[in-house]
């Protein structure tokens, strides 16, 4: 895809950073999250045979020339042959995590991975980030910050984006005062 993978945008290399790698705006990140959710809704509920992707991660999320999201790499995908969705409604997050670790295949595996991907999209941190020490995982890192310290865990690129927008508005206002309308 012409704009590469989500991984390249969330975690640019040092060289890419030095060359001025572009950052995803909040709206682009939100649109990517919505596109992924739509793809999984289709796979889980609208395919003739429901499909579980089993390998959702930023490197498997591709962005085209319009920054439209495409989920790729179906090498680990599995078809679901189940009689009822009632079991899905009764399971909890801990069950999803257990399934993920044990290798069982259900929609919960993709749902759990999607949740982790959302955390990565909006924090800019990999689930294996070096700052997560003492067996802390990204879920615990986020939980500690909620609800009073959300801005401490948001991807700094998003905060920088907001500052740039404010500076741009201030500069435009100053220009309007400096050049009076005649």
Straight-line distance between termini: 50 Å
Strand content: 5-15%
CATH topology label: Transferase(Phosphotransferase), domain 1
DSSP helical segment count: 9
Mean pLDDT across all amino acids: 80
Low-confidence stretches: 89-93
Total domain units: 1
CATH superfamily: Transferase(Phosphotransferase) domain 1
Helices and strands, in order, run as HHHEEEEHHHHHH
Describe the structure.
Helix 3 runs antiparallel to helix 6 and helix 5 packs across helix 6. The protein has 182 residues and is mainly alpha-helical. It has a two-stranded antiparallel sheet. Strands 2-3 form a two-stranded antiparallel ribbon. It has a single domain, classed as Transferase(Phosphotransferase), domain 1. It is globular and about 45 Å long. It contains nine helices and four strands. About 3% of the residues have low confidence.
Task: List the keywords.
single chain; mainly alpha; Transferase(Phosphotransferase), domain 1; two-stranded antiparallel ribbon; 9 helices; globular
